[in-house]
Prior knowledge:
Layout: H1 3-6, E1 8-13, H2 18-29, E2 32-38, H3 45-57, E3 62-66, H4 72-85, E4 94-97, H5 117-140, E5 149-154, H6 166-186, E6 192-198, H7 204-207, H8 212-222, H9 231-241, E7 253-256
Parallel strand pairs: 1-2, 1-4, 2-3, 4-5, 5-6, 6-7
Helix pairs in contact: 2-3, 2-9, 4-5, 5-6
Amino acid sequence: xxxxxxxxxxxxxxxxxxxxxxxxxxxxxxxxxxxxxxxxxxxxxxxxxxxxxxxxxxxxxxxxxxxxxxxxxxxxxxxxxxxxxxxxxxxxxxxxxxxxxxxxxxxxxxxxxxxxxxxxxxxxxxxxxxxxxxxxxxxxxxxxxxxxxxxxxxxxxxxxxxxxxxxxxxxxxxxxxxxxxxxxxxxxxxxxxxxxxxxxxxxxxxxxxxxxxxxxxxxxxxxxxxxxxxxxxxxxxxxxxxxxxxxxxxxxxxxxxxxxxxxxx
Length: 265
């Protein structure tokens, strides 16, 4: 089998930092070429360039697109470009949805401080509905098939109330519903779809949540290992779940937290 025939491909939505960055690097180490979508300004481009350099250090290719992953036209353009770069007959092996861009506001506050209709719509569109749109785009271009794996990053907020997190909680609940539906509809072609619920992880997204210091302190007390979950923990789990031995794991929410959320304290 030629190198081209054996090459694996991953699409990472939110590839420049956190879970997406770590997973891009880990999959590159496993021989994947990475198609990454991120939205960064000049100030954060050095971290994007660092991820690309790490990917390329493993001999893999990094095709990165600095674009709004929720924009309908960009989804079409980038998906078309991915189709052109992947040989006919080959599929995307892994797609990770790790978009963390939403509004953190109370539902009930002073009018000028409360969540607005546009805030709610934007949060659900980016953090939930794009999973469906990107999956559709790849499927319609014959880029998904038997053994393809789709992962979406969820959180404990999907079934718990957290201050200022209401819109994101709604998005995560919707995301998990989308995972179940996509698993049902893609089961016929052998593509699996699962949500990953990470333990508390020190990422740029976490730092934006009011009260994140208490979340970190509580997680450190609860976790049997006495440490936070890391993006690399999630990347390692994704590699394991991408094995063909995991073909029957489908449509579920998988906790990757070392039992952190099962322990009172």
